Prior knowledge:
Layout: H1 11-29, E1 36-37, H2 50-59, H3 74-86, E2 96-99, H4 101-113, E3 119-124, H5 128-136, E4 140-147, E5 150-151, H6 156-163, E6 169-172, H7 186-199, E7 202-206, H8 222-225, E8 232-237, E9 249-252, H9 255-269, H10 274-285, H11 289-315, E10 319-321, E11 329-334, H12 343-353, E12 355-356, E13 358-359, E14 372-376, H13 382-399
Parallel strand pairs: 1-12, 3-4, 3-6, 6-7, 7-8
Antiparallel strand pairs: 2-9, 4-5, 8-9, 10-11, 11-14, 13-14
Residues 41, 101-103, 127, 173, 178, 206, 208, 237, 239, 244, 249 line the site of 4'-deoxy-4'-aminopyridoxal-5'-phosphate.
InterPro entries: Aminotransferase_I/II_large, Class-I_PLP-dep_aminotransf, PyrdxlP-dep_Trfase, PyrdxlP-dep_Trfase_major, PyrdxlP-dep_Trfase_small
Subunit structure: Homodimer.
GO molecular function: pyridoxal phosphate binding; transaminase activity
Amino acid sequence: MRSTGQLEMPRSRRELIGSVIDSSTALLAEQQHDIVRFAMGAPSEDLMPLAALDEAFASTRSGRFDYGESEGEPRLREQILRLAAEAGAPTRDERIVVTTGGMQGLDLTFKLCVDPGDLVIVEAPTYSNGHATALSYGAEVVGAPTDENGLVVEVLPGIVERAGRPPRAIYTIPNFQNPTGVTLSRARKERLLELAERWGAVIIEDDPYGMLRFDGDPVPSLAEIAPDHPLLFQVRTFSKTVAPGLRTGWIDVDPATRARAIAAKQAMDTCSSVPVQHAVARFLERGALEPHLARLQPLYRERKLAMRHELARAFGDRAIATDPDGGFFLWVTFTNDLAGIDTEELFPAALAEGVAYIPGPAFTVDGSMRNALRLCFATSSPARIAEGIGRLDRAIAGANGA
Length: 402
Ligand code: PMP
């Protein structure tokens, strides 16, 4: 066997790692002094339920330091079942596997359902680590457009016809999508279920933000519309609702798939951290999640409104921002005389002005959407948001030679 002394990676994987570094450059930059942080998609520490988390960790009984069940601690699974029932989508223990964050849920999902060369349809734009994971298992990833009602399901048959084969999986972020903030309508969910059934395709419903609704009525989840759907993979996490450092999430899948997921998880990390699972369970048992979410609602609504207001003031009709009813993100597309902006090229100037964001191309498979960017409104106070949009305005004015 030829040895080059170097780690050989398939070309697509090397490119993929490059694309992930592009967005993490923005995240690293936020660590610098006085950068307004619109890049990272995380709750700010001042809004995390720190007292309740401290209590939960302190009260976790000692001696829980052994390996645990790969499917997760029963006590935590019980709380996950309670949350699902209270959200109107009851599920069963034999469908749940606790995961090390939503990312492990996505990794398990793509690992189980994608073979090299399989077609995977994702939203364009989409969460970069989602399509990166599909690519890492050798999928051929194709983006489908989104509008204010989420994935434009109507165009999927055309995409499939052009590809000459049905997709193996369709990856959707139905609520307050990352990066656009849009929500998939019920009518489109029904159509998506029909199409997936016709093609025998898996639907991956990745929903970290659904519980962070601050306006409007919830749209039923795919599982509510089609309970016990054998090809529906639901991926969930506590990262956005509680705290990302917990690295605790879960998947909800058909029991036969669950058995395969447990075997795959055993080979990945045996089980998620046992003491952390107990602390999260304790946090949920004492009913700390619900008041925390209720407290967040007006704050996030206020932050979104502040960001939209500041964008309109700075750019008028030269920037179109989405108007989400929840979640963390606004997606901004520059138009008119700003339509030629390249948000990747603009990025160093924005950092020099003291504001970070994630450029649009980081969320596409083909590097398109260069005149768009993602802003996280959740992390900054309204005053800080005003400061950050002012800095963005100055960076753009400078780049445009004004
Ligand atoms: N899916 C989406 C759509 C996300 O936005 C994120 C977090 N940015 C994840 C999955 C991963 O979640 P976690 O941090 O729990 O791994």
